[in-house]
Amino acid sequence: MKRQLVLEDGTVFNGEGFGSEKQVTGEVVFNTGMTGYQEILSDPSYCGQIVTLTYPLVGNYGINRDDFESINPAFAAFVVKEVADFPSNWRSELSLDEYMKMKNIPGIAGVDTRKLTKIIRQHGTLRGAICSGDENPLEIIEKLRATKLRNDQVKQVSTKSAFPCPGRGYRIVLVDFGMKHGILRELNDRGCDVVVVPYHTTAEEILALSPDGIMLSNGPGDPKDVPEAIEMVERVLGKVPMFGICLGHQLFALACGADTEKMKFGHRGSNHPVKDLKTGKVALTSQNHGYTVKESSIVGTELEITHIALNDGTIEGLKHRSASAFTVQYHPEASPGPEDANELFDEFLSLVESAKQEDTKYAKA
């Protein structure tokens, strides 16, 4: 099954199709992880994107029931150098090809992913289309240049209604902007009584749930496309301890008066070094984002930079100077990736515990 990947700059890659046969359009990005393709394909933060995997062999350990980060994948397509037809792993239940056929998602193999990645690094993320090898690429390029990508990705992947994940510990309201299940697992492992709510839940609705803490999840797209979430963060800030991850980090920054901007090609992979400015410690982190908080916009706000990316110096962590709130741009729950930063969930619950002790002290007084 001949297939082609066409980029808006006129570049055309020819290859062999796998998965679904449908034609798709999306933003072409790359991920540098050596493993974890199942977690990548089920990460809602890739909503609508054509994901290039730089590791040359994909699908070799198949698909299993346990490693999904969401129930339904939201990414548009996979671009790989080689896809394994016969996976070998004791947990494997499906091949990658079988799974993508089942979910009606196309892929293209036989692509020089090294060359494609260098194009993206040089020109920035590009719109692209995966289509049949019979299509006229000139017509596809013309359509791509006229295509406006959707900006409602958070709406597409967020839960439609609130639901509980009961526990006997602290009540945490997890705002779902495209939540990875790894975040929920970390809170559940710590005994938290979690209530997951949709992205557009108001501050009043959240506070009515009597939370001990609020977590802002990861998610896809531009944080400025979710103004209702920015308003919500503004109104709950300082009332309940808060922890934000990835998109949640960016929304927190906007709510505090800072600004965000689109990166040239973003950070996507499981080996990004991040430095803690307080301790000097460097952690290897899992990341997936195409926007960043502008460092110059922090001046004059109540925000303090806590972490930076060693590769390019961009902001990777923030905390509020007076409110019990902090955020990180990377993924401390990993999945896939190293768990160097997993302790941040414990730091968050320590903030929650301190706030509860303060409330108890005032109540007794």
TrEMBL record:
**Protein name, entry field:** Carbamoyl phosphate synthase small chain
> How far does the signal peptide extend, from start to end residue?
none
Q: Name one GO molecular function term.
A: carbamoyl-phosphate synthase (glutamine-hydrolyzing) activity
Q: Which Pfam families match?
A: CPSase_sm_chain, GATase
Read off the PROSITE patterns from this record.
Answer: GATASE_TYPE_1
Region (CPSase), start-end ranges:
1-170
* Stored SUPFAM superfamilies: Carbamoyl phosphate synthetase, small subunit N-terminal domain, Class I glutamine amidotransferase-like
- The organism of origin for this protein: Mesobacillus maritimus
Subunit structure comment from the entry:
Composed of two chains; the small (or glutamine) chain promotes the hydrolysis of glutamine to ammonia, which is used by the large (or ammonia) chain to synthesize carbamoyl phosphate. Tetramer of heterodimers (alpha,beta)4.
Keyword Ligase belongs to the record: yes
**Chain ranges of the Carbamoyl-phosphate synthase small subunit N-terminal domain:** 1-131
